[in-house]
Structure to design on (278 residues):
């Protein structure tokens, strides 16, 4: 991560702890680039992490304040911190697809419902790769994993006319985007918009797991072949995707930044009225 790593990250966490060829380092760098381009310092950001590959990669890496949550609970912790911390303090969370779209989904949806001023970066590697490569909530149908040797047959959050970002939008999120880890600066721009939104923001970043998903689902651990497979899944905005086809659009999905009251401001307003006896 060159100078950005030394500026923002703890030395013992450099280089990355991820597997060779993993896209998590790319995701991590895009977040740090966005923070740097916004002119924020380590004192301006509190960084929370979930469980799994994403949590292990980013836990206690930020030179500033950090916290971690047990499976699916980091969003609930962030709600409390949002009320306790000064409004100008930024809260950024990095979590995996299982932590966000599985065990933590109810907490995530309630953060969106409340429009809590936090930025969630979901690092999605299509399954539970940190525990051996079991299928998860975004694993493409038909692909073999450690727990689906005959192919994954369940519905997921990205296929058959279902998109988890639609669910988050309907729940109350005010900024949503999706990218891949190897996209260019447009992904950084989305993260900057997410951080700048005074409300609930989520950026879904899909990245390749070379070791487990590549080895089991794609039958190759050649990074070049795995990255090419991921690239073929990306569709330009507006291009039709068949309901039974596994592919996704990237870019800003929904932007209503600063468009409705933020949770901690509502709570502070209520507290002031109670104190005034109104």
């Amino acid at each position: 991560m060159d100078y950005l790593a030394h500026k923002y990250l703890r030395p013992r966490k450099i280089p990355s702890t991820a597997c060779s060829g993993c896209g998590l380092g790319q995701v991590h760098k895009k977040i740090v680039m966005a923070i740097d381009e916004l002119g924020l310092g380590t004192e301006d950001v509190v960084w929370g992490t979930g469980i799994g590959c994403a949590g292990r990669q980013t836990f206690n890496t930020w030179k500033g304040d950090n916290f971690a949550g047990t499976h699916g609970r980091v969003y609930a912790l962030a709600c409390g911190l949002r009320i306790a911390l000064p409004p100008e303090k930024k809260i950024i969370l990095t979590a995996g697809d299982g932590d966000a779209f599985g065990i933590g989904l109810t907490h995530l949806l309630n953060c969106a419902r409340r429009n809590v001023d936090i930025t969630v970066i979901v690092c999605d590697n299509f399954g539970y790769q940190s525990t051996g490569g079991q299928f998860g909530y975004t694993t493409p149908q038909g692909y073999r994993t450690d727990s689906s040797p005959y192919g994954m047959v369940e519905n997921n959050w990205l296929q058959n006319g279902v998109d988890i970002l639609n669910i988050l939008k309907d729940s109350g999120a005010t900024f949503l985007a999706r990218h891949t880890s190897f996209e260019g600066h447009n992904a950084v721009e989305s993260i900057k918009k997410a951080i700048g939104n005074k409300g609930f923001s989520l950026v879904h970043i899909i990245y390749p797991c070379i070791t487990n998903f590549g080895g089991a689902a794609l039958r190759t651990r050649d990074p070049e072949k795995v990255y090419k497979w991921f690239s073929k899944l990306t569709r330009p905005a507006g291009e039709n995707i068949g309901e039974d086809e596994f592919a996704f659009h990237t870019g800003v999905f929904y932007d209503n930044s600063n468009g409705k009251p933020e949770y901690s401001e509502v709570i502070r307003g209520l507290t002031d009225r109670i104190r005034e006896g109104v």
Summary: The chain has one domain: 2-275. The first helix runs from residue 2 to 8. The two ends are 53 Å apart (CA to CA). The longest strand covers residues 90-96.
